[in-house]
Amino acid sequence: MQLSTVERLEPALALYLIIAWRIQYLTALGRAATDLPCDVVLDSAEWRAVYVAIHRHPPPALPPSLPAMLGWIARLGGHLGRKCDGPPGPQALWIGLQRARSRLGDGIGFRSPYPINQLEMCGIDRTELASDAGGEPEKSRGSGVTETRGN
């Protein structure tokens, strides 16, 4: 991303502010609201991808609690979760959310290097992601899984 002009810098800063606000909001909410389910602030695809990445089996029907989910996201971001470590901070959540998003593949142009498709394990239909992204479904190379490409 080349941010040499104001016209390029302003949209990038606006996007970064939105991302930073969300991560700070998740950090504060995870520390204060211990009884909320994680689907209050996370999409179904997000929390399911994190659950599968951490536990290596399909997610439950009911979403886990928000503090538990944020702990798992922070584990993906490098937080060790020891007693003396304290709650995860914004940096661990930011990195964890990036890694969860890359594991999910955003459903657009995703080619899984693993024999078990993580989207199918999460119960996510790729054709629904295709209609949300505005792309047309296509077949991936040899896996038989429908993929999408944005326009």
Q: Could you walk me through the main structural features you see in this protein, from its secondary elements to its overall organization?
A:
Helices cover 51% and strands 5% of the residues. With 151 residues, the protein is mainly alpha-helical. The chain folds into two domains: 6-107, Transferase Inhibitor Protein From Tn5, Chain (Transferase Inhibitor Protein From Tn5, Chain A, domain2); 114-151, no CATH class. A two-stranded antiparallel ribbon has the order 1-2. The protein is globular.
List the helices and strands and how they pair.
Blueprint: H1 6-32, H2 44-55, H3 66-76, H4 90-104, H5 118-121, H6 126-133, E1 136-139, E2 146-149
Antiparallel strand pairs: 1-2
Helix pairs in contact: 2-3, 2-4, 3-4
**Total number of helices:** 6
CATH class of the largest domain: Mainly Alpha
Q: Which structural class matches the secondary elements?
A: mainly alpha
Chain-averaged pLDDT: 77
Distance between the termini: 20 Å
Largest sheet: 2 strands, antiparallel
Q: Kindly provide the radius of gyration, computed on alpha-carbon positions and rounded to a whole number of angstroms.
A: 17 Å
- Oligomeric state as shown: single chain
In total, the number of strands is 2
Characterize the overall form: globular
Q: Could you list the spans in which at least 5 consecutive residues all have pLDDT below 50? A: 106-116, 135-151
**What portion of residues is helical?**
40-55%
Within CATH, the superfamily of the largest domain carries the name Transferase Inhibitor Protein From Tn5, Chain
How is the largest sheet built, in terms of strand order?
1-2
- Sequence of secondary-structure elements: HHHHHHEE
The CATH topology annotation of the largest domain reads as Transferase Inhibitor Protein From Tn5, Chain A, domain2
Task: Give me the CATH architecture of the largest domain, please.
Answer: Orthogonal Bundle
Strand content: 5-15%
Total domain modules: 2
